[in-house]
Amino acid sequence: MLKKWEELPENMQTDAVRPYYDILNRKKKALAGKRLMDMLVSFILTVLLFPVMLGIAWAIRAEDKGPVFYRQERITAYGKKFRIFKFRTMVTDADKKGSLITGKNDSRITMVGRKLRKCRLDELPQLFNIMAGDMSFVGTRPEVEKYVERYTESMRATLLLPAGVTSEASIAFKEEDELMAHYIAEGVSEEEAYVKHILPQKMRYNLKSLKKAGIPGDIAIMIKTVLEVVK
What we know:
Blueprint: H1 18-25, H2 28-64, E1 69-75, E2 81-87, H3 111-119, H4 126-132, E3 135-138, H5 145-148, E4 163-166, H6 168-172, H7 176-185, H8 190-210, H9 215-230
Parallel strand pairs: 3-4
Antiparallel strand pairs: 1-2
């Protein structure tokens, strides 16, 4: 549920965040419905897709005997830290062997991992994060702390709601790897390309979507995401 304005972290009690807060504050029933839908749908999908997740877990273990899950600390609503669940798609300890940003042809991606990423099946374990309340089906993708610290004042408005598995920005930037490669080819570092070019563009989508938060919009984005994955 949306916190009272005075209960927000100090760095969110700004003039840039206030308009978004006021919009969400008038939609408390819609936000409660959104959470209820998240809980119900995530439980049903976990039960239905459990055999699929078991098969994926077996394939990951069979390839290199490493851990099945990848867990990384991310940031969700109000700056809360949580550990995101994903199926591991890269070699063990990949974070220690390269950048936090993953390129399309990153040598750390495993064979099984490449197939999972293509169909976004690596995101399935985030159903557990949704049931725990740290994530929602639709919302701003959770970033690591180092990038959240680079948020502008208006970008912090996206922290008024839980992070999401998918969003308009995720769909629009489904070829983010190729965009990143374009900037790198122009001599821009991965870090600079993401923080100065890609992240601001994604946030424009996220802030726009924040104003439309609710069940109808969520369902539309979820359907659109499934269609994009299938396509």
